[in-house]
Amino acid sequence: MQLLGNLKIHFLALVLTVVAEFIGIKKLGPVVLLPLLYTLILGLLISIPKFKILTIKQMEKSADYIGIAVMILMVKVGLGIGPNLGILTSAGWALLLQEFGHFFGTIVFGLPIALLVGMRREAVGACYSVDREPNVAIIIDKFGFSSPEGRGVMGMYICGVLIGAMWSSVLAGMLAQSGWFHPLALAMGAGVGSASMMAAATAPIIAVYPDYEQQIMALAGAANLLTTVLGVYFGLFVSLPVMEKTYNFFTGRTREQDLAEEAANHE
Q1: Domain that holds residue 30
Q2: Averaged pLDDT, groups of 10, the chain, 267 residues long
Q3: Residue 94 in contact with residue 188, Cβ under 8 Å?
Q4: Do 99 and 220 belong together in one domain?
Q5: Do residues 106 and 127 make contact, with C-beta atoms less than 8 angstroms apart?
Q6: Quick check: 160 and 192 in contact, CB under 8 A?
Q7: Whether residue 209 is found in the same domain as residue 173
Q8: Does one domain contain both 121 and 45?
Q9: Final residue before a domain boundary, out of 14, 29, 64
Q10: What is the pTM of this model?
């Protein structure tokens, strides 16, 4: 009966998915528009209270379904680990240390800026990783979709969807033309765990170093796969615990104190 009661939510989700897939992937220069972006925009529109398409209760219930989608996503990631163990073991320390770089950069540069602009526990979700799909899944599974950490990770994820590919393309192009880094090092850096960002970043690198095209594509693909696979475990057991302790150290506050203050402000 509960399934029937939420039939409207399932139907709207199906309609938005079909519409987004029908539009397909569109490229505007360095910007790649993915179906996910269309579903975000369409979902935003139908959730506006003025249109009375969904009630507040239905929107809260739809947030609970995120957990189901997260489980499916993690199964997909897990199934991709076994067939690619050979790549992971032969990748070498350069690719393995890259994962540490993703984590180190977001804490050293991201967390201070987030705290300066007034973010609270949202900074934990926003800054503990590069916030792609597996990283979103970890936060939602541990803290919940509606938690401060959930808001932070989703905010960064949406920013990545909107401008991630464009930013990756511009930054990679600038670094490639600067001559500061070897093209293969840039190729490894392009693999951040997002196919669209990787494609956007490798294009300008290849344009500057056409003789390295095959090596650039191979290394970027390996780095992207490694980040997707190892990022789950690294984020779960290293990045997130360290980020929480770092946040508590700099703010002098625990999660319980932040949540209690947030609850008091909403009363």
Answers
A1: 1-64
A2: 66 90 76 73 84 79 71 67 62 70 80 87 87 83 84 85 78 86 86 78 85 82 78 84 88 77 68
A3: yes
A4: yes
A5: yes
A6: no
A7: yes
A8: no
A9: 64
A10: 0.70
